[in-house]
Amino acid sequence: MGTLSLTSEVHVFPCPNCRETINTSMQQCPFCHTPISTADAATAAAETSRISQACSDASYLKIMLGVLIPFGLASFVPFLSFIGLLGFVFIKYAIAVMTIRWWIKYANLKTSDPDFSKARGTAILVSAISALVLIIFRVHLYGLHI
Ligand SMILES: [Zn+2]
Asked: How far does the centroid of ligand 1 lie from the alpha carbon of residue 43, in Å?
């Protein structure tokens, strides 16, 4: 993960007044002519990139959850069962950790962005399913009940 550079690159963000998409190189909004300060623009652009990061992280959570299914099924297949179990255990704990990380990183984001509320919905769903999987689908591996 790189750090965000706000000075050398142009970033897009919604105008604080009219919500039209503008960028950090503009001194005023071309749609509603609200003056945009450099600091405001930098803050807004940083928030916008955090929102898009939150969305892509949330869709990654969903993909990981989907990957659990083939590993879970593989655990019933002869010759694949050990790999299936190992993968299943690894992924279910990885999802739990990643979901917690998502909430730590993005729970404090105050935004009315519809994409972000969708991402938060995904994170809530994945959290709930992940908790159920951890509680219900226990596995015996190396003498451990995990
Ligand atoms: Zn505007």
From this structure: 16
Domain count, the chain: 1
Give residue 131 CA to ligand 1 midpoint distance, Å. 43
Q: Which two tokens stand for residue 99?
A: 């979901």
Q: pLDDT tens, 69-115?
A: 999 999 999 999 999 999 999 999 999 999 999 999 999 998 888 99
139: confidence class by pLDDT, cuts 50, 70, 90: confident
Domain membership flag for residue 77: yes
Residue-level length of the chain: 146
Residue 85 domain-assigned? yes
Other CB atoms within 10 Å distance of the CB of residue 106: 20
